[in-house]
Amino acid sequence: MSLFETQSKEFQHRHIGPNEAETTEMLKAIGVASLQELIDRTVPPAIRMNEELNLPQAMSEAEYLQHIKEISLKNKVFKNYIGQGYYDTITPSVILRNVFENPAWYTQYTPYQAEISQGRLESLLNFQTVVSDLTALPLANASLLDEATAAAEAMTMFFNLLNKDQHHVTRPKFFVDKDVFPQTKDVVVTRAIPVGIEVIYGDYGSVQLDETYFGALVQYPNDKGSVEDYRDFINKVHSVGAYVAMATDLLALTLLTPPGELGADVALGSAQRFGVALGYGGPHAAFFSCKDEFKRSIPGRIIGVSVDAQGNRALRMALQTREQHIKREKATSNICTAQALLANMAAMYAVFHGPDGLQNIAKRVALLTQTLANALEERGYDLLHEYFFDTVVVKVNDATPFRQKAERQFLNFRYYDNQHIGISLDETTTPSDLFDIINSFVNDVDPVAYELQHEDTLDIIPTSLTRTSEFLTHPVFNTHHSETQMMRYITQLQNKDISLVHSMIPLGSCTMKLNAASEMIPLSWMHWSKMHPFAPTAQTEGYAFIVKELSKYLCEITKFDACSLQPNSGAQGEYAGLLTIKAYHESRGEGHRNVMLIPISAHGTNPASAVMCGMHVVVVKALENGYIDVEDLKAKAEQNAANLAGIMITYPSTYGVYEETVKEITEIVHSHGGQVYMDGANMNAQVGLTAPGLIGADVCHLNLHKTFAIPHGGGGPGMGPICVKTHLAPHLPGHVELSNQQSAISSQQNRNAVSAAPYGSASILLISYAYIRMLGADGVRKATEYAILNANYMLARLKDQFDILYTNHHGACAHEFIVDLRPFKKSAEVEAEDVAKRLMDYGFHAPTLSFPVGGTIMIEPTESEDKDELDRFCNALLSIRREIALIEEGQIDKKDNPLKNAPHTMFMVCSDEWKKPYSRELAAFPLPYVKTAKFWPSVARVNNTYGDRNLVCVCLPTEMYAEA
Ligand SMILES: *Cc1c(COP(=O)(O)O)cnc(C)c1O
Prior knowledge:
single chain, alpha/beta
């Protein structure tokens, strides 16, 4: 190959870990002659894809950056005054550089292993405190996907609480005020229909409520910018025994009486304007807070305070028993991946600015808005409302000339209709920006002049709704205000967390692969980051190109025909995909089909998503070898034939094997009129070798944050687009903005919206686009092959010392495999958890624990790890196996040993007292490699039950802090 030809493989060699020499050694260890032979032994011939994927030729990293720069320039960056839930903001550079662009933050996994996640747990606790303080409600979660889904979560929570008997629903109605954001209304309606909720729109001021209502949703400030006093309305709702959710705005709440003080039961919204770029719709963190009485039913993850084995304060995720992993179809929601990274950014924004800084930003916005309002009124324009925070709505006879003039000046306003123009100001608006805005409303002859209002004259917020209570009094929000302090605070937290910058994170089913710098860099460029999701299409051609191309590649990779990029996570993809199945059955007059078959081994989100679609879950058994029990499937499909909606399968199965029976399974379901949903979490074992479309599936979601290189961000963001066959394409999610813009291709365009923005967290689509463009067809297939090679190599190294569950008849696994640790419980009283915690002393994050089988770990190395790293991990596990052997042989105590006491903190090991029956060196430096790069867990083993019994999920108030 010439020097120039190798350039197209440049990224392949950067992305894939093992080099040629290592590959040869690894194949030898497995006992096969070539990679081809390994793949032939692993992937059943009946499902193989025979031709190369039709994807563009690979680009080098430099070529890609040039290319994506050119595409970015197709986007036109206007000043956005559109509002509607998305506001321009200034990401402080210290946060941009040290959090958003920092792999030590964005490559973290969800903090299930609390002892090596204290930094992000602390930051997420800060996020919860910000939300709880600003909304004045005691309990907050650590983010949801977007404002619209947060509203839908509130509705579902209320519905379930007040209709305990699902077969006898006495309160089916949910009131939604007419001035709630349109995209929120759509997502709420999508969620309401399948579970039988009736959404009633109206005017909160005049609606008649009765005991058939379970709840209500209002917006504060509302869709037209108006600040309304909801106190009487809230009382009215409570008097019929129903609950109130208030969609709101964190920046406004620094000036407005908070929802909790008005009596609201839930507050929710988007934390985007706390320093997170618009990004054409996301990713952004949504927030959700509520009264204490909802603590058993609040959706999403909650970070709580607990203690460690040494009695020290330690954080961890609280009340996990509510979640889908455990509760499955009875879970409070299907939320798994949320928006952790963006919640961390918003929290850091509050830490950096502090309560006064935030309030000053809000006051500036409000004063500019008041100035603008006065200037417009002076010029003879009528405004729609008297009280507002950042948004005015101007009445005009015909918006067209105003729009033309605004767009000539590169300004976007919001056009509610031809008589109402909305203007929303934000943190980035300067006094001089008002010239251009006002200029859009005057002739070009008179000079634009206006007087900036003074703070004392701020009268656009009524006194009855002016905030009087304090917020963010905790020291963390009143300390780190210089850049030096902020930089060090971020770094202090980061140093407590293991991420991919330290070592491999072999989490089965989660695909923690390289998130390459070249894939990430363009996200910070303003032509991507400053785009408003509802900007006119003439300005968004760059994004349109990415959407079109990426959809095409994903269809090619899955062998499907159409794609929706709307769902913001895998679980949302499941929900969206099942909705297409439901809509398809309905379109054929078979709306009664509501039984979803789900194998026992399925991920918890599968049954939770099915329930959201109003489906009835029937569990299918698994065989000894982990395969779906085809006989049981046949029987259940037959029994339920009349009402069969479909099946949800994961392929390769969650046990990490390619079931040879998969085509038979899909045929059985089809023959009884059902559709086949494929959970695409394991797509990293398929790309280029086989495809959902080839094995008989009708729809699948893809976790772009697994297979397609979007980083996990410590628990989000994610993207879960769905691909479908032609017959399901008409039922893909629509969006109100798409239907506005494309002059209604069909009147149903906004049906089935599942996210607030038309393309979900659009800006991170760039990462997956980059991944595919830099690898090309050959590279994405090789990535799959090496994922399989790496897994089989580790399996070969471990199989003599551990029981491996579920390999195929050649003894091969797919891209992951399960190590059974249950035997050690009997032989040494060692639990899987002990092994997970002991791995921390070796500098590693544990593999997936107890999924899909309790008492096991599931290892998925991914293609990005080289042989040395795989060996280090195997050596650590083998060394732990020897430690277990010492317990088995009675040489170390069953209760007091390195596994039970793991992880060992620096404080434990360095303290003057050491009474363990093993050495300090064994505790902290069990293998030589650990000495060169020791990662110290910052707390000892965390006590989960203590924290759940004493739920604290905000930073403690100052007084208590001082006492401690
Ligand atoms: C990760 C995963 C999901 C859920 O994806 P989220 O993005 O976390 O919602 C669903 N199914 C399987 C098998 C998974 O591994």
